[in-house]
Structure formats: C-alpha cells, structure tokens
C-alpha cells in the first residue's frame, strides 16, 4: 500500500505540473515543473514521506527499463537524427564542455571557500 500511495503522490505532482504548464504556457515540460514543485515541498517539509521513499526506491531499482522508450524513439526517428547529425553532435560536445568547465569552477570555488573557512576556524581556536 505504501508503494501505491507514493506513486500516486508522484503522479499527482506530475499532473499538477502538466496542468500548470498548459494553463500558463510555460516553455518547460510539465513533469519537470512537477518535479521542482515536489522538491520544494520536500525541502520545506524537511523529510521524505515513507510512501514516497518506497515508490522512488522501487522506480529507481528498475531505472534501466525506463530508457527503453527513449531507445525506441531514437530508432523510430533515426532518419531525422541522421539528417541533423551535425547540430546534435555540436550541441552534445558544447554542452559537455560547458558542464565540465562549470563543474571545475564550482569545485575550485568550493575548495577555496572550505580552505578559508577551515583556516579561520583554526585561528579562532588559537
């Protein structure tokens, strides 16, 4: 019963996100908006309900099956992907490079911040 309650809650958030996107004309997918709303709700609440924990663990254990529709979609639209291979490749390469650079910068900033914080704490204890 916990799984059913949890999956129902997840689907309700997806539905609310989808309805909100369609009513407001927001240019993002409804499930993404629903996921953001769920995240904010869980953040405000400060904990995850057991039913959501059970449902999400069950879904994650079968995550590989969720890639099957994407693979089928790629095969169904292979000719279009083949026609647009250059923009797709450029988008993948550029987004990968941008992500790697952003991650490296965040890591450097975080490391510097932690070093400065620990040095200040060391001075405070002296």
Q: Could you characterize what this model shows?
A:
Helix 1 crosses helix 2 and helix 1 (2-24) crosses helix 3 (50-61). The protein has 126 residues and is mainly α. The chain folds into 2 domains: 1-64, no CATH class; 79-118. It has helices spanning 2-24, 30-45, 50-61, 68-76, 78-83, 85-125. The relative contact order is 0.08. This is Holin-like protein. The chain crosses the membrane at residues 20-44, 56-79, 85-107.
Major β-sheet annotation: none
Strand fraction band?
under 5%
Q: What is the residue-mean pLDDT, rounded to a whole number?
A: 91
Q: Figure out the total of helices.
A: 6
Protein name: Holin-like protein
GO cellular component, one term: plasma membrane
Transmembrane segments: 20-44, 56-79, 85-107
Organism: Marinobacter pelagius
